[in-house]
Amino acid sequence: MSIATVNPATGETLQTFAALTKEEIEERILAADAAYRGYRTTSFAHRQERMRQAARLLEEDLEAVARMMTLEMGKTLVAARAEAAKCVKAMRWYAEHAEELLADEHPSLADVKDSGGARVLVRYRPLGPVLAVMPWNFPLWQVVRFAAPALMAGNVGLLKHASNVPQTAVYLEDLFRRAGFADGCFQTLLIGTGAVEEVLRDPRVVAATLTGSEPAGRSVASVAGDEIKKTVLELGGSDPYLVLPSADVERAAKVGVTARVQNNGQSCIAAKRFIVHAKVYDDFVEQFVRGMSRLAVGDPMDEATDVGPLSSERGRESLEELVEDARERGASVLCGGRRPAGRTAGWYYEPTVLADISARMRIDQEEAFGPVATLYRASDLDEALRLANDTPFGLSSNVWTRDADEQERCVRDLEAGGIYFNGMTASHPGFPFGGVKRSGYGRELAAHGLHEFCNVTTVWHGEPVMY
């Protein structure tokens, strides 16, 4: 795959980039290693000011950055602005909270005494250069949610971004440089997928994080495992959206539309499988299908557009294959199910709702990465939970119920890294984010994401410390 910006709304190639040579890759890894040796000893105050400056600069650049993301991967301009603003928020959150979250921890005096020590503490120390392999769907946010905690912890970053968002990748390196981070603290590697293994095997690269497809996760995890290096993986999901009898059905249907088509439907945490109790099924489906049918599909630069194009021609073809397989095996198409009429350019696909889903259909187990929702009818909570967990993924989940016992049951039994009641899943810098099963392992954001790439060090003193 070439490293290029191709406008998904038109199919036009706007800019191409040359991949780094082996010599250039070596120069960047060498620079990262050298930068880490100095940066790891900097104060929190120093890192905090640099991160705050990065947030200020991004805020100033927000409109230009939003347009760049829209041109590169097709998200609506409204969504792109929101993504950039979310990154500003995360940078400021980590600048404000990192020091307290990385403060020394002190075990209980009883345990210290029992160990025979005079004083014990646990210190969070940085690891070194971390490789981040990031996807195109949230080209700024996915990177910042790694970079902000990693840099505040004293690590340095090497970014291998998706090949269709090179301008965003280059911008991110420039942003951290302009913010005052030392040369080598955060660098973009314009390389193809085939070059990732060699970078990851380099002994100066100590860990990796990846957000992307299941095959990509397997590849990175296997190499990192062979090298005994820490990894954090977020590999997508097929999130359930449960609607139970006590739900506000009108609100659940309205939010459900947004939850499905956010980012043109290309979101790991988008609601994908709508599991609705039989008592409210007809009411929900009527309102949900009506809402999906009314969405405006069009130019993502137009403020009135609800759903823009998919990011690539292959992405649209993959979605079409899933829908056609379901249709051929008996699924009912309640709306959409095709390319918009009259559009000869761009990779658009109509918001689609499929019902009568069976286990014979690929879409029952595979993630649909686009504006396609599947409907399931559940006779009771037991069946709803069984359907919700009947997937290889376990990233997040949404449940609409006002019943406290049902909520507690869902917290106990849903196999997911997140459970959102009476609302849609949305990541926040203060809450841990990640999944189980084939959605990956490890956590991003909050203190958990900050600690993932730290050397959690026990410091034991056998004699009183002189001050």
Question: What would you say this structure looks like, in words?
Answer:
This protein has helices at 22-39, 44-73, 77-101, 109-114, 141-152, 166-178, 196-201, 214-227, 249-261, 281-293, 313-328, 381-389, 404-413, 446-452, and strands spanning 3-6, 13-17, 119-126, 129-133, 156-160, 186-188, 207-211, 230-234, 239-243, 271-277, 332-335, 352-355, 372-378, 393-394, 398-400, 420-421, 436-437, 440-441, 454-461. The protein starts with a strand and ends in a 6-residue tail after the last strand. The protein has two domains: 3-235 and 439-461, 3-Layer(aba) Sandwich (Aldehyde Dehydrogenase, Chain A, domain 1); 239-421, Aldehyde Dehydrogenase, Chain A, domain 2 (3-Layer(aba) Sandwich). Helix 13 links the parallel strand 15 and strand 16. The mean pLDDT is 97. The relative contact order is 0.14. The protein has 467 residues and is α/β, with parallel strands linked by helices. It has a seven-stranded mixed sheet, with helices on both faces. Strands 6-5-4-7-8-18 form a six-stranded mixed sheet, sandwiched between helices. A two-stranded antiparallel sheet has the order 1-2. Belongs to the aldehyde dehydrogenase family. Keywords: NADP, Oxidoreductase. Residues 3-459 form the Aldehyde dehydrogenase domain. This is NADP-dependent succinic semialdehyde dehydrogenase.
